[in-house]
Design goal:
Elements (H helix, E strand, L loop, with lengths): L2 E5 L3 H13 L3 E5 L2 H11 L3 E5 L7 H9 L6 E6 L3 H10 L3 E5 L3 H13 L11 E4 L2 E4 L4 E4 L2 E2 L4 H11 L8 H7 L10 H14 L9 E4 L3 E4 L3
Parallel strand pairs: 1-2, 1-3, 3-4, 4-5
Antiparallel strand pairs: 6-7, 7-8, 8-9, 10-11
Helix pairs in contact: 1-5, 2-3, 3-4, 4-8, 6-8
């Protein structure tokens, strides 16, 4: 089972989430502050980080940015209701998904599995490697290079790119992308998609303001070029 690092300052929430995950077979390490969590990160070597947004001292956004400096570890933000602005900042910092507290253990477990499925090898029926301009996507190795330089993509960014590039020129609505990439079958917040698109564009486009690969069709959604 995946190893999970939980950074949460509320003792009741921390103990509840930790107990629920352990009952489902996870190896869990927890920390009450961002600083302690970063120390545990290198020692524990988790498969996924559950990160509270509102932490004392170093907050969740700062922790997320620090992790993303040298790691593409899957990150799920834990947010309280009403933290919309901070949640978007967290997604922009590199989080792959978010969960609104309080959340049932089975919901947390389902989100963990969904995020981790984004870094599993894709199906072998499609060509393993596709070249789009200066962008090379290896679907088997789950690597992306631009002009020969390997890009570091977070799990949600990689899965989004794989999904869009599998059907060039096809337009996908935000709801379709939520269902296929994030596996959210309900009408989730479309800002999750928009934040991921912005992060992806910053990495694969020459000019994220005039994107060549991930294009917006206003009122409809996104499609993959290049044109």
């Amino acid at each position: 089972m995946p190893r999970v690092l939980l950074i949460e300052d509320d003792p009741a929430v921390r103990e509840g989430v930790e107990l629920g995950l352990r009952r489902r077979g996870h190896d869990v390490r927890s920390a009450a502050t961002g600083e302690a969590g970063l120390e545990a990160l290198s020692e524990f070597r988790p498969d996924l980080l559950l990160l509270d947004l509102m932490l004392p001292g170093m907050n969740g956004v700062q922790v997320c940015r620090r992790v993303r400096e040298n790691s593409q570890l899957p990150i799920i933000m834990l947010t309280a209701r009403g933290d919309d602005f901070d949640m978007i900042v967290g997604l922009e910092a590199g989080a792959d998904d978010y969960i609104v507290k309080p959340a049932r253990p089975e919901v947390i477990e389902a989100r963990i599995r969904a995020v981790l499925r984004r870094i599993e090898p894709t199906d072998t029926e499609r060509p393993a490697t596709r070249v789009h301009g200066d962008l090379t996507i290896d679907r088997a190795a789950l690597t992306v290079t631009k002009a020969g330089r390997r890009l570091a993509l977070a799990p949600s960014e990689l899965k989004l790119l794989l999904h869009l590039s599998a059907a060039p020129e096809q337009v996908f609505s935000r709801q379709q992308l939520l269902e296929h990439v994030w596996e959210h079958s309900y009408h989730a917040d479309a800002r999750l998609v928009d934040a991921c698109v912005r992060r992806l564009r910053n990495k694969i486009e020459d000019d994220s303001g005039t994107p060549r690969y991930v294009q917006t069709l206003r009122g409809f959604g996104y499609r993959f070029g290049p044109l």
